[in-house]
């Protein structure tokens, strides 16, 4: 008894102590995950202690208080700082419960990944490492940013080669192929937007490779997607250096003309280097949201040069002796592979699906306001403008030049080849400037996944954010490696059809299989048939187009000129 008196006397005077009474002595158990342990109330001898008789005694009723079962981790979770669950029964007070603010490196918008409250609320799970990476570092994007990025990546220099496919396919098959490809890729784009968030697990797939590995498994996902995604990012940057540097040289010659006073103008390689330096400087912007303005400029210039190219070509009229008969030479096998190679060129024009999840990852998301709503709204606006650019460019360019378009050229090269003396020098210069600006802007967008990969390797190893100086070094190294490849392999444009076949599953096939695996539509339903049919057709076309591209390259030959760009 003396020990009990000492314990009671050591308590603070400001805390009222209510001992349990004698008349209530039920046996009860705690119904939580820690097991069922019998608890017996204290006897009457405690209530009759002389030192406790002066304390106010409030008898309790025989009703057993309600028990709230919570794992211990939730009592320390910032998510429950204002939860009424902590104010139940004996713990109820009039003052709100304050939770100390964490001063760690974890951003405040990230709650514990294993918290049952998060599963109950179906909130989005975020990897803490995402706060350090350029794609997901900033999540304040909106529908306008999504439209800018989608438009800049959807319209590019790859659209300039569409009339080349028409020279092989002709009017009917050219328009049919372009329309089918546009509708097909728009449908798979819708699937990607919906698959970005998994509401059952609360996960956001912020990168295409993440979704592929989560759907197909780690090994199969990397095997099927890693190389095409790498080419669509790094390979596109190399192609942009080639196109941007060549167009810069063309712009200089257009402005200078025959009156050029410089006896030693810059070579093509030097123009490549100038373009690369400008691109590397702009690449120092930290994250994907920070280049929204650059994407807007790139989108406007893309719409500008596409519109200018087809309007000027149509205004100048058809060339004399132009023909619209499909250009198919050789045996039946040669004609068939040329036809398939043309479809590969059309497929190559519709790239950009490798950036859709990354663009959507820059948006905030919750169960009440999911990111798919503003993302799809921005995509719809962007693809309306894309359709208004691609179809007139392909049809108008083919109408103006017909079979005279160079086999390895584009509408731009045809314009300068046939109308450099007829069209105003200022108009030609403006088109060239638009192409250069768009190429520089697209370099930032297509290079961002590679920047993200490099910084992800550092953050995974070092468990901290990449410092700014190391980030600058990474991006400079990437830019000049692309410059080296562009100089060493200037004939990459000759493999357009082959590359289109390799990258085709990323746009046309994989999203359908992902939808089937994640959403699990009812067997033999319309969605089940459509996605199985498009997925299998896309994989079959990919294999055929790869074979056709290889055959055309071997049959027609490619002018190999290592380290000798023309």
Describe the structure.
- This protein has 566 residues and is mainly α.
- Helix 6 (162-195) crosses helix 11 (332-349).
- A two-stranded antiparallel sheet has the order 1-2.
- It contains 18 helices and two strands.
- The radius of gyration is 33 Å and the shape is globular.
- It comes from Solanum pennellii.
Rg over C-alpha atoms, rounded to the nearest angstrom: 33 Å
Uncertain stretches of 5 or more adjacent residues:
7-15, 21-55, 64-124
Q: Give the number of helices.
A: 18
**Secondary structure category:** mainly alpha
How many angstroms separate the termini? 101 Å
Summarize the structure.
Residues 86-105 are annotated as: Disordered. The chain is 59% helix and 1% strand. It has 566 residues and is an all-alpha fold.
Secondary-structure blueprint of this entry?
Elements: H1 2-9, H2 44-47, H3 72-75, H4 116-121, H5 143-154, H6 162-195, E1 197-198, E2 203-204, H7 208-216, H8 218-256, H9 268-282, H10 292-316, H11 332-349, H12 356-360, H13 372-401, H14 411-419, H15 425-462, H16 468-488, H17 496-519, H18 526-556
Antiparallel strand pairs: 1-2
Keywords: Amino-acid transport, Membrane, Transmembrane, Transmembrane helix, Transport
Main location: membrane
Protein name: Lysine histidine transporter-like 8
